[in-house]
Specification:
alpha+beta; Alpha-Beta Plaits; cell membrane; Mycobact_MmpL; MMPL_dom
Length: 753
Amino acid sequence: MATFLYRLGRLAFRRRHFVALIWVALLALAGFGAASAPSAGNTSFTVPGTEAQKAFDLLEQRFPGMSADGGTARVVFKAPAGEKMTDAANKNTVQKTVDALADGPEVASVADPYQADAVSKDGTIAYASVKYKVPGMELEDGTRQVLEETAQDARDAGLTVEVGGDALLAQPETGTGEIIGIAVAAVVLVITFGSLIAAGLPLLTAVIGVGIGVSAITALASTLELGSTTSTLATMIGLAVGIDYALFVVSRYRAELAAGREREEAAGRAVGTAGSAVVFAGLTVVIALVGLSVVNMPMLTKMGVAAAGTVAIAVLIALTMIPALLGYAGRRVKPAGEKSKFLGGARAARKAASAKANMGTRWARFVVRRPIAVLLLGVVGLGAVAVPAVSMELGIGDDSSLPTSTTQRRAYDLLSEGFGPGFNGPLVVVVDARASDDPDAAFTEVTDQIKGLKNVATVMPAAPNKEGDTATITVIPDSEPSSVTTEELVHGIRDAGAGIKADTDADVLVTGTTAMNIDVAQRLNDALIPYLALVVGLAFLLLIVVFRSILVPLKAALGFLLSVMAALGAVVAVFQWGWMADLVGVEETRPIVAIMPIFMIGVVFGLAMDYEVFLVTRMREAYIHGEKASQAVVTGFNHSARVVTAAAVIMIAVFGGFIGSSEAMVKMIGFGLAVAVFFDAFIVRMAIVPAVLALLGRKAWRLPKWLDRVLPNVDVEGEGLRTQGDSARSSGSSGSGDSTGADPDEERELVKF
């Protein structure tokens, strides 16, 4: 592996014009595809195998057109104090509003509140339901403008008017935080490298990689039904790993220059060593993201695969485009320890650095001297932060989770006030009586049994289809959609359905948004253990190959569990409990978005293994070159601690930038990933890992002989490159960066691989 990547790096350095042209062409092609592709349209949310999904599919078959994916809006009216919506003046205002809405573009139908019995018992609140011909995300701006202007006209007439539903949905915004995150990354890179040119390379390549990935997602969005969140998450992860992977290669390149190697040779060795770590680190991230498919939720699978594709692009760019750009930069990228004249540095900085051990070395020596104290402090601290995760509640966001400043949230609150807390989360009971001898009797029995259950506010009469063999029964709970009592009602209806099936041969299924939320949460809980087993198992095997050890991969997996549990605890404390919510911009506490924890676990695992590979690879490299186990830990920190720290700060900045998103799940994931990277990089990898390795000593690097013979030797440490430099120098390889011809033998060997 190292030898192949070494040759690839040298080839990319020499053939930099060709390599750069390929990546620019790919960016242009992806951009053209995104620009010419049709709009993404509506993204269906399906959870195959759940009862709620089965009921929804049955409705599509038995009630054609009933479950059309057209957008909806609820225009909610409230009378002024002392008045009622049935007063003549208010009724006249509502009628004018309904007529204006019906004349709007793309409107399929409007239900008059007074004809649809949509006035509250006390007469103070009413609502008009609007159905559109196209999905909410596809509505034209003019349609939304008519809806808003019509509502404003009713406000001007003296009524309180708010609008709910998906008709006002818009693409989520990330705010200025994303730009701030990139700016922080730029500052960290400049400080790390001491050179504007060297700092700019990771940023440039990361932007190109994300540009290709997100453009490809946009181009395929309509065909594959990819939601807007997919590209946002791909951008988040692609930027973070793209900058980090390039950072490690450029850092190793500068270290090779400082060791006296010529520039082409340094590029080859940087790709052969740091590039090998990038490949395996990228593989762990890809495994974690693609492994999300085991949950069997199409939306989650698509998000994972799209993000994995962006990570794969980041790996390829780090291996090819970075050495090509280093060839263009030439002597403007300085050896490690030598800063550019622009920043006021000099060779004296390198001499001063060599005279005094860096902070990473001093910290490693401290940990090696006191491993037990550091280990206990780290484990206990993360364990304490993880405690809130025990009370985590899962759900899928609705208008109740929106800020009170939005009209959707105020409409939700008005409906709860006028019609009860369960009105915003009705249950749809589907009765399939096709196999029953008396369908009407089955419908009646289901209705009667539901009325006898606890926490039922209203049961609508059964509404059969044209054939009379299937009916829907709308049930309004007496509690809000996200409450435990509503969940118990759903299970109660399903339990009653088993007895009804035995008596009447009719199937009873419960669906609706609330029921779907419950089923999704259960599906994710059931999939968590298999997902962890798959991802951790595959990555464990991969790390055994990389480190040729059993204990090191085991330690890596256990450290990941600590950091991810602590991150989930922090998410629960902020978003569910409301601790320090103002600092993060959380206006309303709420259950955790159901798909967020498992998605975050996948991403965090991949990123945790990144730092494990980058940091511990240098330790193993020192150990196999003859150093003692404890000294190898110090040497690994001496070479990698500064770069890993910079990489972690960059990732935290990039992920933290997405906390400003208007999308609840993106905000949660941005916060969760930023916190998880902090815990994993600075507590697990920088404290717990060296403490454990110091305690294990030589045992950490042992591998059974039979397993050593079976495993392939991937040579991540670059042991096979030790003689490459001498042979390259003896053959007169150019190190000036001016060479344009490639070694034919080298190209043939590369193709053979």
